[in-house]
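Sequence in, structure out.
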Amino acid sequence: MLRPIIRRTFATLVKPYGEVTTHPLAHTIPPNHPATIGNLTTFTLPQNVIGTDADHALGKQMVQTWRQDGIFQIRLTLTQSSFLKSASTVSQNFFRRPLHFKQNLVDDQSFSGYIASGEELTDGIPDYSEIFTVTKDLPITDPRVQQKWPCHGPCPWPDITYANTMTKLMNLFAQSGEKLLKLTALGLGLSNPNSLTELTQDGWHHMRVLRFPKITATNGKGKPGRGIGSHTDYGLLVIAAQDDVGGLFVRPPIQGENIRNWEKSAAGLYEYDKKWTYVPPVDAVFTVFPGDMMQYMTNDYLPSTPHKVGLNTRERFAFAYFHEPNFSAVVKPLPEYGGVGKGIHYGTHFTNMFMRNYPERVTAKRVMAENRLAILDTPALRQVSVTV
């Protein structure tokens, strides 16, 4: 029996530069961001993915939806939805703490911790997002930290409640991430159905807890109305959750556009044209789209989805979780999709992206001062590859 799929029945309308439309969520679109209002598909994930006919059918529908829209939603259970609301409250309370307190939450070995509004750069331009980034929380006694692997170190938590809540939320995202990868492998028709999940053993999963100021309360560093500039993300899957304010835009696959972020930066591309889809805020869902490594593995069959965030008339909060390969993984092209090449070392790709986005952060300066980039080429950091 095929699992239920819900197609949102909203009309797809264009709202150029604040024009009024009759869409029920038109009032949530940020000012001065022309876009089509999304007609997103919502899937219900099974409790377990075991390779049934229903699993195969669901996986194929997911893959085709990504190819058409670049994004879909997954419905949360009541337990997941309830915890997400609790985590949102905790994150909002964190961002309301004094700036001097938050600015001390930085680690000089990992890129975890607090990122002030204007510190992150996209295409060399400051973003207005205020962020707490969570990467793998490793004690200084961990061998990888002792050996000075780039990006490896402790997470500078503000308190134990925040640490426990965000860790539990990441685990919730991760459970969905593993199911999604298993279904994606089935939907792609891979001869080895574990091709994707083998990469994520001890995966370099990370999360960004985000606050966006309202459009009238910016600090003057970035571009008017811009929360985060257009870009693609680094790994396999992006799983996001937003509040009821609205601000996320994605760019569906468009014929003639071939964006490959690992070859040439996607930051800032097409940011101000009208071919964007606005993702309306819907209760009790995660939004899901592919990242760079998924595009590379499938030889562009599943493109990494460009996205951006616009500032709205109210303060906005969101979570963005990244379900990733192992830091040491060498991601190989899938033979079923005609891919050729020696592969991409995920840890190098991740490090390069964070060094580009945070060139003045103490972590980036320590990486350069201690020549930590050199270790990325050593055999110890290239031990994991996908089985094909």
